[in-house]
Amino acid sequence: MKYMITGAAGFIGSNLARQLLSEDAEVVAVDCFRDYYPPELKRANIADLLKNPSFKLCEEDLSGKNMSWLDRAFDASEEILVYHLAAQPGVRKSWGEEFYQYTTDNIISTQNLLEWSLKRGNVKNFIYASSSSVYGRVADLPMVEDMTLPVPDSPYGVTKLAAENLVRLYTRNFGLPSVSLRFFTVYGPGQRPDMAFSIFLEAIRTGNPLRIFGDGSQKRDFTYVGDVVRGLRLSEKCTDGRVMNLGGGNTLPLLEAIGTLEEAAGKKAKLLFMPVQPGDVRDTCASTELLFKTTGWKPSTPLLEGLRRQILETENRQN
Prior knowledge:
This protein has helices spanning 11-22, 39-45, 68-71, 99-120, 155-174, 196-206, 225-234, 254-265, 289-295, 303-318, and strands at residues 2-6, 26-30, 55-58, 80-84, 123-131, 178-183, 186-187, 209-213, 219-224, 240-246, 250-253, 270-274. It is of the alpha/beta class. It has a single domain (2-318), classed as NAD(P)-binding Rossmann-like Domain (Rossmann fold, 3-Layer(aba) Sandwich). β5 (123-131), α5 and β6 (178-183) form a beta-alpha-beta unit. It is globular and about 55 Å long.
C-alpha cells in the first residue's frame, strides 16, 4: 500500500511524511506551495525527505479539474491510503477578498480529491484533517463531536465544516471509507510562521512586544504535532465516516501558556494587549473520549517539553 499526503510540505504533513518514511512506507506527497507563507519554508520542511527514494513529490494543484497527474503517481492495482491535510489555513485572513482562496482550497479541492478517490476504487481510507474552528463559540466545554449543529465563527471554519460534511457524504452515499479528525491548536517543530507560538518565539528572540488579542485569559487546547501524527496513524482503521476530536490535553489560559513558553526559552516576553479579532473564539477545549475509545490514543507530550523541542528545531534552522 502507498500513502498519499496532501499538503505534505506543510507543518503537519511533513512531520507525518517523516514518520511514515521511518516505517519504510512509500509516500506520494502533493503540495502546490501556495504563498500564504514563504514557500521556501515549506521546501525546507521536506529537504531531507526529498533524498529518500520512497518519497515522491507532486507539485500540483488539487483545485483543477484535470487529475490525470495523480493517476500517474500510482500503479493501477495499488491500494492507497489518503491523508488529506492540504488547506488554506488561518482564521483572520479568511475574511473579505481572501475568502475565494479558502473556498477553492478547502472545499473545491476536497471535492475533487473525493471524486478521484471514488473513481480510483482502491482507496482504503480517506483521512481528513478538520479543525476545532468548526465549533465556533461553545458555552459549555469541553467541545464534543455529537453537537447537533456546529456553528463556526469564521469563514475559515465554515469552509472546514463544509469539507468535513463532503467527506461524510461520500462515505454515506458511496461507501468511500473515511474518518475526519478535528485538530486543536497544533504546535511543535516546523510550525507555520503565522501560528501563535512561532510568532511569540520570534517576538521573544528579537525583543519586540508580544501581541495578545484580548486580555490573555482565553483558553486554548494545545496539541503537540507528534501526538497529532500518532493520532492520524491510529485512526487509519476507522472507515465509517465518523468525526473525532484530536486535542492535546494542554488546555490553559493564554497567559499561562506564554509563561510556559518563557520558561522554555529562558527569556521574558514584553506583552502588548490588543483588541479581540473577528473570528477568534473565546475558549477551546477538546473532549477526546471518542478518539480514546476508538483507537486508544492519548496525548503524551507536556507543553513545556513540546515547546522546548520547537525552540530547538527553530534554532537549528536559524543556524
